[in-house]
Amino acid sequence: MAYHPTVLSQLLQSVPRLEFEKLAQAHDGTRRSDALSRWSQFIALAVGHLGQRYSLRDIEASLASDHKLHYHLGSRMVSKSALARANENLTADFYRDLFGALYARLQNTQTVPGKRFRFKGKLFSLDGSLIDLSMKVFPWADVAPKKAAFKLHLGLDHDGLIPAFAEVSEGLASEMDVADTFAFPKGSVLVFDRGYSRHTWHKQLTDKGLFWVTRACRGMLYKVVKTRQVAGSSNVIRDEIVRLSNKRARQAGAYDIRRVEYQDPETGKVYVFITNQKKWSAQTVADIYKSRWEVELFFKWIKQNLKIKSFLGQSINAVASQVFVALCVYLLVAFQKFVSQTAYGLQAVFRLIQFNAFVRKPIADLLCPRKQEPPDPQMTIRLRAA
């Protein structure tokens, strides 16, 4: 009988171990937390997400259930006290960089699904989501009287619908200030809601060679520079080149942008979009903004399936470590989906890996089960005769 490593071990083989250790050396040097290595910490946190383990004790018990598991994973036994100290003391910046490295590796595999739109640049949806915490346990995270939360900021790559940029901040942090730290490739298209409404920031994006699409703020002041022709059969009401005329826009150095007024054919509701892209069709502008909903669905997915609502440590470093490992696990699962070309959706792939994490079976057979050949009727007749 052929030997197979566990599904968890095969999942983690997508993490380049040499690059992992170099990254750990760069962040930690010779520092360790009670002899708990970065790799052992990573495996423990990943098992917590995949196995829905809600406490340090649960993770310790899960990893202690099979001593041979550590040998094949290249890790050591993990105690709850050592893991707690590692989460507090080992910087979360390491996992942010690991997440970035896994995203870059995924892009280089040429397995990510193709584009929906025809433009060359990548499309990213930007958003931030507050995740509630207990004020008593996390006093550093206060956002209002008797309310505590941190904010997860994301840049979602629409090629494959995978997170490309991420940051964890205190709940009151500006989404635009965080987005400024994301290094989007020149020519990329960013779509975001009205929470990113600072005109100076829009101009900075334009100056960097980035395109953007968002909804216009209510009461936006502008002067029409040019009116573009609109097809009578389309859902586009107006397509204009405008120049913002409010004080802040003038201070930022007002320039011409595009304003598209669009009526949703299903609801009849009218939306007004603005963009610095003047060549696309007005329908494309509307479709790009509609696609922004994917980042909302992503937030919903990770909140429901990965462990980012209950935390294993009380500091922002421990919280950030757990969140970035969750995003790493998401990329690893997405990688298996893309490589296997399975017909299962991401939710089903995640569940299959989750429920079979410690099963020794080829992950390819798990995601793409082979069809069993129907029994030979002649063989059945011979067996009955015998």
Provide an overview of this structure.
Among the domains are: 7-96 and 310-367, no CATH class; 193-283, no CATH class. It has 16 helices and ten strands. The protein has helices at 7-12, 17-28, 38-50, 56-64, 67-73, 80-89, 93-108, 175-179, 199-207, 247-252, 282-291, 293-305, 316-340, 346-355, 363-367, 377-385; strands at residues 123-133, 142-144, 147-157, 162-170, 189-191, 211-215, 222-227, 236-244, 256-263, 270-275. A hairpin with a 2-residue loop joins strand 2 and strand 3.
List keywords for this structure.
386 residues, alpha+beta, 43% helix, 18% strand
Record the SSE blueprint.
Elements: H1 7-12, H2 17-28, H3 38-50, H4 56-64, H5 67-73, H6 80-89, H7 93-108, E1 123-133, E2 142-144, E3 147-157, E4 162-170, H8 175-179, E5 189-191, H9 199-207, E6 211-215, E7 222-227, E8 236-244, H10 247-252, E9 256-263, E10 270-275, H11 282-291, H12 293-305, H13 316-340, H14 346-355, H15 363-367, H16 377-385
Parallel strand pairs: 1-5, 5-6
Antiparallel strand pairs: 1-3, 2-3, 3-4, 6-10, 7-8, 8-9, 9-10
Which residues sit in consecutive blocks of at least 5 with pLDDT less than 50? none
- Helix percent reads 40-55%
> How many individual helices?
16
- Beginning-to-end CA distance, first to last residue: 29 Å
User: How would you describe the shape?
Assistant: globular
Supply Rg. Answer: 25 Å
Number of DSSP strand runs: 10
Characterize the biggest β-sheet. Answer: 10 strands, mixed
How much β-strand is present in the residues? 15-25%
Give the topology string: H per helix, E per strand.
Answer: HHHHHHHEEEEHEHEEEHEEHHHHHH
Mean pLDDT: 88
